[in-house]
């Protein structure tokens, strides 16, 4: 029986680490691409490489492209912006060129992006909800995602699925520990107005949705039902509309804390400049394509997600 092989870029990162465990448990072979030298696997089904030309064979059934430096680390200087672009755009271009050169055509390539694609609400009303057809904006967080996604469109021979991720919540990793720290110390409650969208997804639903999309590709790209939404773009976010204030309230209740300090938006604007948009603004986003394809979330509400992660 054929054991499918997944090529995973960014395999040593936050999401990649969780994904590898699930793929191995589901009897996939995994080739992990990582910049870290000397990685050794204890599993015969996991092979680490630092460069694509180190891959021992061309039998690749799926590719999951998660490469890219963290957008939240380091102030957005012009140098930092260029690093963020190159870590996504250049790595993705090299990956697709490798596949074209070796004539490798996986069942699908799941390529990462983010809900930053949809930009911000300049008027800060947050009444619009973005599905996968919503337009991007001419601001850095959106342009970063646009440039990342545009690379994949230069290779129409591949069956690429773009996944626009929200904030990924997981125990002991990602951004959640940093978000919880001021609440654990009974300090920060509301940031700015507190009404700004908090667009999130539980790590288990990230992994489950990616495996769901891989299974869909096995059906020869057939859709479960006709849809007006681009079948190659998926918002990986929970279906519940949440705000920053709601996150703080639910987390505080779960941690039995009573943070009292509301931090004005101007503090973050002074400290972070343009980067403060990540904290103070954004757009409401819905997983329209996933829901239309029949995907069922294990953690559809923030309360359920935080109860699981903070229990």
Automatic annotation (TrEMBL):
Family, per entry: Belongs to the NAD(P)-dependent epimerase/dehydratase family. SDR39U1 subfamily.
Species of the source: Acinetobacter amyesii
Lineage of origin: Bacteria, Pseudomonadati, Pseudomonadota, Gammaproteobacteria, Moraxellales
Superkingdom of the organism of origin: Bacteria
Protein's UniProt name: TIGR01777 family protein
Listed Pfam families: DUF1731, Epimerase
UniProt cross-references to InterPro entries, sorted A to Z: DUF1731, Epimerase_deHydtase, NAD(P)-bd_dom_sf, SDR39U1
SUPFAM superfamilies for the chain: NAD(P)-binding Rossmann-fold domains
Domain NAD-dependent epimerase/dehydratase: 6-220
Residue ranges annotated for the DUF1731 domain, each copy included: 263-309
